[in-house]
Amino acid sequence: MRTAGPEYWMTNPGITAKGARKEFIDPEQIPWTDWLMPGTRFKLLYCNLVTGSFTVILQVDAGSVAPPHWHIGNVQAYIIDGGFYYDEDDKGETGMYTCEVAGAVHSPTSPQGTTMFAMVDGPIAGYGPEGELGAIADARLHYYIAAANDAVGHTQLVDYATDPSVGMHSMVPEAAK
């Protein structure tokens, strides 16, 4: 009798059924959604409601200065165009990569504006003008903000449900609208 041990799975992996999920999406089909900071907007490409990670294209207007915020998880970003910096002597420009490490608190500046591809491993906590905690922006909040803008039809969504097309997230809380 043959058992389904590691050797079996290494030689007979089968093919994962993909259901209604598309493997590739065109970000041009996703509308821009206003983000939490004035002068910024995002396109939600991937949202993992289980782990809290999410992937966005973030667009920032010229002259923007982000309020101080704390990265609870790492953020990896690739600058598609424009640029931003935390310090004048260490500027990020088109084609450059950065990893904003978990625990970093900073206030980036973008004199010319920027568009970046960002993979976020956890929530971002924003602070108000008096140093008070203003918001914690996690994957679920980003999903609700984008859903309220009808901008999640092409988002790769991961949740405890095995098939996101079953409509588990068709209801956006009234507070998010």
Automatic annotation (TrEMBL):
Ranges for the ChrR-like cupin domain?
A: 22-124
Lineage here is:
Bacteria, Bacillati, Actinomycetota, Actinomycetes, Mycobacteriales
Q: What is this protein called?
A: ChrR-like cupin domain-containing protein
What Pfam families is this protein classified in?
Cupin_7
